[in-house]
Structure prediction request, 387 residues.
Amino acid sequence: MLRLATLALSLTLPMAAFAQCGGAFSEFKSGLKAEAVSMGIPPASADAFLSGVRQDASVLRADQAQGVFQKPFIDFSRHLISSQRLNKGQQLAGQYDSTFDRIETTYGVDRSVLLAFWAFETDYGAFQGDFNTANALATLAHDCRRPELFRPQVLAAMRLHADGQFDPRTTTGAWAGEIGMVQMLPQDIIENGVDADGNGRVDLKTSATDALHSGGKMLQHLGWQAGQPWLQEVTVPTTMDWAQSGLETVKSTAYWQALGVAARNDTLADLPASLILPQGHKGPAFLAYPNFNVYFEWNQSFTYVLTAAYFATRLGGAPIYDAGNPDTGLDSAQMKRLQHRLQDKGYDVGDIDGILGAGTRAAVKAEQQRLGLPADAWPTPALLNQI
Prediction:
């Protein structure tokens, strides 16, 4: 499963609760019960939910084995995007045409965006995950790396259970606790679940109509702007200041046009935008518009987000991107060495994980500027040797 659980959560909890991780699992569950009861969940319901909850070591292994995100954009996108997925998406767009019409009218989210998430999260519902959701969430909440993320989700699942909408014994999904065709966390379901087919319940596992409406409502809730694009492929001149690339720089399209940036197809939207060069100035180039930032509320992996956004443009009719001829990048071991060296220089690169994340990109760009290299945030073996 590619989805990373990264959404901000809205359950109102004391900050002290976030530190309640680790230790004996039985004591951890007792703490969960006390917290759930304080939130108004009946004690008997909390007991029924927690009685069968167990730690799942396979969840932690899955959490620690996300090597796919170490792939660069070109490799990653080619891995995820196939003619079969593209054709299936186009077929489903027609099959659920009236559903997508309602979603676009109600929530302002383009069908291509939801189709791309549907494809990547579960291969259009075919592979929704077989981890016990209650066990997965409790295991991750007990683990002390991200309790502030997962503990509220356990409590949200307990609320759904108390309302008769979640069976802790039989509900399954992704290793990180997401459920259904577009993979939503329990708190997402509470806030954005939609019974679009009118059968009296929100069913994200077997009702595509419910799942797609719920995903559309969630994206609207996260800030999606109706009628606006999210990503567009562009061509760039060979002489521009590459340090202006990156999501941290937001300029008008008129500004980018003045520098020689042009739409590869169609025309540029009149919106603020950032120039993205996922594999440096010799590789693919895109302008990211404000809606692109909403993707990071769904998933925080830059490569995943860019690939999902790009696939949505393909489903909407855009051609295959021009891959260019990017300089050779770093393998996982080299990337970790680079991260260690950057960290030693005082840069905050986050985890030493071999993934080219935002912190590593920023540090690479700073070092490229210091060394007089094209500051496009794409690390190469030559850069590694100079640091």
User: Anything to note?
Assistant: The longest helix spans residues 147-162. Strands lie at 131-132, 172-173, 231-235, 262-263, 274-276, 286-288. Residues 1-19 have pLDDT under 50 and may be disordered.
